[in-house]
Amino acid sequence: MQTPDSMPSAPSAATSALAAVTDPMARLAGLLARPVAVGGRTVANRLWLAPMAGLSHVAFREVLDGFGGCGLLFTEMCGARAVPTENPRMSALFTWREEELPRLVCQIAGADPREMALAARRVEDEGFFGVDINMGCSVSGIVKKGAGAALLRDPDAALAVVQAVRAEVDVPLFVKFRTGWTPEVDPAVALARRLEDAGADCLVFHPRVAPDRRTRPPVRAHIRAVAEAVSIPVLGNGDVVLPQDCLDMLDETGCDGVSVGRMAIARPWLFAEWTAGFRPGETVFRDYALALADALERRFDPIRALKRFKSFTIYFAANFTFGHDLQSKFLACHSMDAVREAARTHLRPGLPLVRRPNLAMYNT
């Protein structure tokens, strides 16, 4: 039996601090787990889900929330013109769980300041944490309407949208944007300052030119330039795959936090892992696939549920050495019951994993 004198003493504050410095995961958790103020409200941590069309829908957010650790959730991109009259019980995009609203930001896209203001008013009235203006999407159908990344070509139009939304709502106002249509960062820095002056409370910055669909590395120095230009929080986004990538982005850019997109689809437990030391078990991939299948079936009609599950398989399968073969098993499914059977059959513990998911699959 140990006597009080012989029992090991608790770690001192200095020892704990040293461990946090020498252990990258502990240091990362310490940086990310700090609250951050946005527009007079507090967000619990600095690791957020990025808005993604077709991916950050209500079913995925439900599964992600089961793991925990995500500071803010973002919806899919919602068209501003439709939002004021959308029925959340029928809409595939403008829909949510009541329990997520205090941490949920709705992203809207459009070019008409009045339409964007009316959409933002509906978002605030429904009780969302905040509203996010899309200035990053470069899909041709969005750009042709003057929305998304097209606003980066016309800073005055971008500012008119932000000013109209700011005049209409009191909730935190976010802007997600890219470097622009040319590789020079100076226009993005100038726009960031003007966005802050127009009333934006937070910027989420993806340091790539607008037409680039992840074919070139993001330029992290551009995140630093934007973060140093404004006094509001700036979150970095782009190619954050492993914990070290996240730590490097924070260290190299001085950004206030990190927004994670497709890697969150591949491994939604990363938020809990990076902020709180969660360790996934050996059945986590199977459990994730089954949970997502169930959530999709609850939230969407059978055809849409199956289509959305198949969209997810690109990112999910990228975790595995033989990812293309695994993905083909799910793509062959014709019902959600078949999806669940495939998950139980093929997602066995011990499947060879890759340390860094195959990003080439994301671009197919």
Question: How are the SSEs placed, and which strands pair?
Answer:
Blueprint: H1 13-22, H2 24-32, E1 36-38, E2 41-43, E3 47-49, H3 58-67, E4 73-79, E5 104-109, H4 113-126, E6 130-135, H5 140-143, H6 155-168, E7 173-180, H7 186-198, E8 202-209, H8 220-229, E9 234-237, H9 243-253, E10 257-260, H10 262-266, H11 270-276, H12 284-299, H13 302-317, H14 323-331, H15 336-346
Parallel strand pairs: 3-10, 4-5, 5-6, 6-7, 7-8, 8-9, 9-10
Antiparallel strand pairs: 1-2
How would you characterize this protein structure?
This protein is α/β, with parallel strands linked by helices and 364 residues long. The chain folds into two domains: 27-276, TIM Barrel, CATH 3.20.20.70; 284-363. 44% of the residues lie in helices and 14% in strands. The protein contains 15 helices and ten strands. It has helices spanning 13-22, 24-32, 58-67, 113-126, 140-143, 155-168, 186-198, 220-229, 243-253, 262-266, 270-276, 284-299, 302-317, 323-331, 336-346, and strands at 36-38, 41-43, 47-49, 73-79, 104-109, 130-135, 173-180, 202-209, 234-237, 257-260. The strands form two sheets. An eight-stranded parallel sheet has the order 3-10-9-8-7-6-5-4. Strands 1-2 form a two-stranded antiparallel ribbon. The longest helix is centred in the last third of the chain and has 16 residues, at 284-299. The chain starts with 12 loop residues before the first helix and ends in an 18-residue tail after the last helix. Residues 1-11 and 13-20 have low confidence and may be disordered.
